[in-house]
Amino acid sequence: MEQTDQLILDTAHRLFADQCDAETVNRAENCETPDRLWQAIFESGLTLAWVPEAAGGVGGSLALGFNLIRQAASFALPVPLADTLVANLLLAKSGLSVSAGCWAAMAFDGHEVPSLLQGEVSGVVEAASGAPGATVVVVPVLEKEVVRIATFAPSAIDMEHHESLAGEARSRIIFDSAIPSQLSAPVDGMTVDGLKQFCALVRACQIAGALEKITDLTVGYVRERHQFGRPLGKFQAIQHKIADIVGESALTGAAVEQAVRKLSAHPVPFSGDSDMLLPLATAKIVASEAAGRVTRNAHQAHGAMGFSFEYPLQQYSRRVWSWREEFGPEFYWSGRLGMAVASGISSHGSNHGDGGTWDLVSQ
Amino acid sequence: MESVRFSFPAPEIDESVDELRKEVRAFLKEEVRSGGFIPVTDCWCAGVDPDFSRKLGQKGWIGVTWPRQYGGRDLSALHRYAITEELLVAGAPVHAHWIADRQSGPLILAKGTEDMKRNILPQIAAGKCFIALGLSEPESGSDLASVRTRAARVEGGWEITGTKLWSSGARHCQYMTVLARTGERDPDKRHAGLTQFLVPLDSPGVTVRGIRDMSGVEHFNETHFESAFVPDDAVLGAVGEGWKQVTSELALERSGPERFLSTFIVLEKAMQHSAAGMNGHQAAVFGSILARIRALRAMSLGVAALLDQGHSPEIEAALVKDLGTRLEQDIIERLREFWPIQMKQGYGDEFQSLMSDSLLRQPSFTLRGGTNEVLRGIIARGVGLN
Ligand SMILES: Cc1cc2nc3c(=O)[nH]c(=O)nc-3n(C[C@H](O)[C@H](O)[C@H](O)COP(=O)(O)OP(=O)(O)OC[C@H]3O[C@@H](n4cnc5c(N)ncnc54)[C@H](O)[C@@H]3O)c2cc1C
Prior knowledge:
The complex is a heterodimer of chains A (363) and B (386).
Chain A: H1 3-19, H2 22-29, H3 35-44, H4 62-73, H5 81-93, E1 104-106, E2 115-117, E3 120-129, E4 136-143, E5 146-152, E6 158-163, E7 169-178, E8 182-183, H6 192-224, E9 226-227, E10 230-231, H7 236-264, H8 274-302, H9 313-323, H10 330-346, H11 356-361
Parallel strand pairs in A: 1-4
Antiparallel strand pairs in A: 2-3, 3-7, 4-5, 5-8, 6-7, 9-10
Chain B: H1 15-33, H2 43-46, H3 50-59, H4 77-90, H5 95-111, H6 114-119, H7 121-125, E1 131-134, E2 150-154, E3 157-168, E4 175-181, E5 194-200, E6 206-211, E7 220-231, E8 235-236, H8 242-252, H9 264-274, H10 280-308, H11 314-335, E9 344-347, H12 350-361, H13 372-382
Parallel strand pairs in B: 1-4
Antiparallel strand pairs in B: 2-3, 3-7, 4-5, 5-8, 6-7
Helix pairs in contact in B: 1-4, 9-11, 9-12, 10-11, 11-13
The structure holds flavin-adenine dinucleotide.
Flavin-adenine dinucleotide (FAD) is lined by residues 45, 132-136, 141-142, 166-168, 220, 364, 367-368, 370-371, 373-374 of chain B.
């Protein structure tokens, strides 16, 4: 990683550590919006990590943004930094203006996107993130297979606010021949599937960050908590659960890191090109599978304490349980990955033939 | 609170690694086509073919990381990694030289005498010299420090007495690295007083007997040492340092691709069989396995990169082995859904036979080289529990 990237990550880490303790996260769910935290994040410019310097942003690499997202998740940040980063990236990539104080909500959930017809947008987004409180809603729209980015003032559209399992805002937005306040030109190389893959990686990185925190919480807990005159961590049954947690968490880390590297080497991050499917699907499959395994072991090792609202574990468990479903759970991506490899092998004129699975897997 | 964080960097893979990989791949394809070998599952343990090992030696694909003066090619660990991956996924019969290339050769290079390096390493690299591991005993498995094989000082050398059990491939080997007790047992210092020897298996007093495993292969062995004499210069490393040497040797061999690719050949064939008519459910099963393999590979390559950078990623390596060996077993269990395993060798069908051989061999995956329970203990201690 570049040195400047590390500096930004360190700054972010200090900010999160200062302003986002476990209580802040719990209070956020009890209707005490963490304005101070969110404000500090805006002021630090972190939401603009993926916006080019020329457009007033930080001009950070893809890796920087994904690392930031992973780190934010390890604090269960109760503000939509990850999705705002993506929304701002969409604005920047499509040539629309981004402003520093602008809270951009992302009206894209990986399902069908609204359509654009004669300048009007129609369709439903079931789970837009970060909408309540946002100053602008960013929505990819489709016109004759071509993706453009549209923006709306929240007051101009019909929104119904819901919450994810983890209390994160997910709004149902109905666009009924709505006229966007800004509409981009067609975005070069961007596809809806490419966007979905990108966002799946965002969720996978979030899961990776949260699993790291769950690992720390659990290791810390079993060292502190004594039963039968010994720390729980002395019991082999508990040690083996910890080893499982550490393994799944590390594997998730490896899976998201390889995906970020592959994506970084690709000229268009939202292309949905077939050679990106394997690394991105891998990340979301491994992360989503790990989410279930890690939380099960972590809760078991924590006893009743982990089941209480006050103890922070549940904030992470609920987050990974909702993130693993968003932008496609492991079942969805496994099916696609399996099909992709199968068709890579059997497609006419393919040079994969015998040994083709390995050929594709080892790329 | 400290935090448990790992990072698995991408190794620097230059063109020459890819070139070498292609070359190995093409060679293996041609070998299969021309009947040079029949692909086997778990090939690095079940596929013994000294002639094939010699062929690889002629190609210059054994001991590639060792210095030229000792028969190596001064190539990087990643060159070796690429070679081993290609051999594994092709199901090539590589067991004869595998241990010497992976483990004993590097040990000799690090700790051996100049004579050993000059005489033995080039032979290993040529695919002509094979080495077995003499660690386990009838009464010592996971608790390796309890070995009872003794080496007593005699004039000009040592006399070894005891029994080594489960040594893979020993019947095809010229040497065995033997872990023996040379100092008195001290309950407070269980790991002291152990020494490694490099013992020629044709020494008087040494007998090797094959043991048939449940898959029908006579792959591991029982070796008796009856006051077998070895000269002083058969000591491998330093007297009393055996434990340290063995544990670092084992730590190094945990993260290689043979810890998640032992059954890949079956997956490859299964995919070939079903690719054309694959349904959604099958695709999801394959996809989930393939994703895990990709992630493990990233992890394993990450460990290789860390080693290359001079780190000692012991926990990471243990994680690769624990996760990888369980995946190798899972692959077979999950493929059973589509191809039940009932007959010994299918009905003579190549694929069915790979499936049944895999099932019969898979109990060993989570045992050999230190059990997964032991690995998990290492991982737990590594993150601060003990
Ligand atoms: C295919 C194969 C090849 C092999 N090749 C070689 C070789 O070349 N050279 C060689 O020296 N050895 C070899 N071995 C032996 C191998 O190293 C041992 O099988 C292994 O170390 C375990 O020892 P054991 O079989 O005596 O089992 P044990 O140690 O008796 O263990 C039996 C069970 O108890 C568990 N257990 C033991 N201690 C603990 C503990 N403290 N906590 C929790 N669980 C525990 C184990 O995990 C295992 O599940 C090979 C084994 C196999 C299967």
